[in-house]
């Protein structure tokens, strides 16, 4: 045999064979395989948890944006200085602008909705039937009743949660009470008027389903003492992110003083808080993967200490330091790679079935695990982002590979003479 050890092909079959042998449990050093198993579970659960939490946070943001912007629009145009009597002319000009998918005037006011069961605060919005039918968030989610004849029928459309709280069905009458009623010599008296429930809708967002009432436009004008006025014009755009360009074009198209508010201004605090929470959750859950990577380091160091005699024999048989280092690198990396992809599969499966899992756990525990009153939505959403999933997988793999470097280097630096001296 040559005096100089020959460097074998990197990651040769016998290196994989030795590495896999070290991963298998043995009676002499079974605790090492136990540590490897816990490292595997830590990485798997860490990756899966990261994927699930990020998907749920993405789902929350997407669902809330769809619900909020689907009902409230991207831009609201209001006027000041003069009464808004020319809303139809302004609406016609906005409808002709590029990027506008829907624009309509509305009347809005706060009131109390009551029935024989009780009373609750409500937001009453007056809209024309044609506009309400074009607003898919409402027209495509009618559970009971119909919008046919809405303008002339004198009825109102009520959210499902408000209808349930008031014990109402289609055809029942709902009383709407406004503090701003008729002006008398003794002051302003509240206005109380009863309307039949023409339709019941479900948007899927508890805050809207439990508070919104839609009333015919002309009736809302009369109810809120607005006569020939409108509260504003709601505008929906092709691209919600193009509101800045639209605002500039709007100032040119509308030849009168207007006040414009967009969806970012109205929901800035809410979406900013959601983004901060999402980033913090990512950092916190990354610690799970980091702890699992540290377990790989401790497990490999113990393995190197236990296999010192084996390493010495390999070195005397011609194995180079590179070979020894690759053997222990493969041992540690195998735990990280298998754990990462097992976590990817587990996380993906949970994301695909997250609502079914929530319902099962709710039935099993007899509790409401995702209360619509607290979380706004009636179902638990999950939306996986490919780039985020890739970043989670890459991060876990990098941490796993880095965790193997120091123990592998220690194994390669082991002197065979010292290891065999007392054998």
What is the terminal-to-terminal distance? Answer: 24 Å
Q: Please, how many helices?
A: 18
Number of strands: 12
What composes the largest sheet?
6 strands, mixed, barrel
Describe the structure.
- Helices cover 56% and strands 17% of the residues.
- The chain is of the alpha+beta class and 423 residues long.
- It folds into 2 domains: 13-65 and 270-420, no CATH class; 82-256, no CATH class.
- The strands form 2 sheets. It has a 6-stranded mixed β-barrel with strand order 2-3-10-5-9-6. It has a two-stranded antiparallel ribbon with strand order 7-8.
- Strand 2 (100-114) and strand 3 (119-127) form a beta hairpin.
- Helix 2 (30-72) runs parallel beside helix 14 and helix 2 (30-72) runs antiparallel to helix 17.
- It is elongated.
- Residues 1-5 have low confidence and may be disordered.
């Amino acid at each position: 045999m040559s005096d100089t050890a020959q460097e074998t092909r990197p990651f040769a079959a016998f290196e994989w064979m030795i590495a896999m042998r070290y991963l298998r449990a043995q009676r002499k050093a079974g605790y090492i395989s136990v540590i490897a198993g816990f490292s595997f579970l830590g990485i798997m659960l860490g990756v899966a948890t990261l994927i699930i939490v990020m998907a749920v946070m993405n789902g929350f943001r997407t669902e809330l944006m769809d619900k909020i912007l689907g009902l409230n629009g991207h831009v609201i145009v209001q006027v000041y200085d003069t009464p808004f009597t020319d809303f139809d002319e302004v609406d016609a000009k906005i409808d002709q602008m590029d990027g506008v998918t829907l624009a309509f005037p509305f009347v809005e006011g706060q009131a109390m909705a009551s029935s024989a069961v009780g009373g609750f605060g409500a937001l009453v919005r007056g809209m024309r039937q044609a506009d309400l039918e074009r607003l898919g968030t409402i027209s495509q989610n009618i559970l009971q009743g119909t919008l046919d004849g809405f303008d002339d029928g004198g009825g109102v459309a009520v959210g499902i949660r408000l209808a349930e709280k008031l014990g109402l069905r289609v055809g029942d009458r709902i009383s709407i009470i406004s503090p701003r009623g008729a002006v008398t010599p003794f002051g302003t008296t509240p206005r109380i008027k009863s309307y039949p429930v023409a339709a019941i809708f479900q948007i899927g967002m508890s805050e809207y389903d439990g508070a919104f009432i839609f009333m015919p436009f002309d009736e809302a004008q009369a109810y809120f003492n607005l006569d020939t006025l409108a509260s504003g014009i709601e505008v929906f755009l092709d691209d919600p992110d193009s509101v800045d360009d639209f605002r500039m074009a709007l100032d040119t198209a509308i030849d009168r003083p207007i006040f414009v508010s967009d969806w970012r201004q109205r929901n800035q605090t809410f979406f900013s808080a959601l983004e901060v929470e999402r980033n913090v959750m990512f950092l916190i859950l990354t610690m799970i993967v980091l702890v699992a990577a540290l377990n790989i380091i401790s497990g490999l160091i113990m393995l190197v200490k236990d296999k010192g005699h084996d390493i010495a024999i390999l070195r005397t048989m011609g194995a180079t330091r590179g070979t020894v280092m690759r053997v222990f690198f493969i041992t540690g990396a195998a735990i990280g790679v298998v754990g990462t992809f097992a976590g990817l599969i587990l996380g993906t499966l949970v994301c695909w079935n997250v609502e079914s899992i929530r319902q099962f756990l709710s039935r099993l525990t007899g509790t409401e695990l995702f209360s619509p009153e607290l979380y706004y939505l009636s179902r638990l959403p999950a939306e996986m982002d490919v780039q985020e999933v890739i970043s989670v997988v890459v991060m876990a793999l990098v941490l796993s590979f880095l965790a193997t470097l120091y123990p592998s280097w220690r194994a390669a630096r082991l002197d065979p003479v010292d290891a065999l001296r007392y054998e």
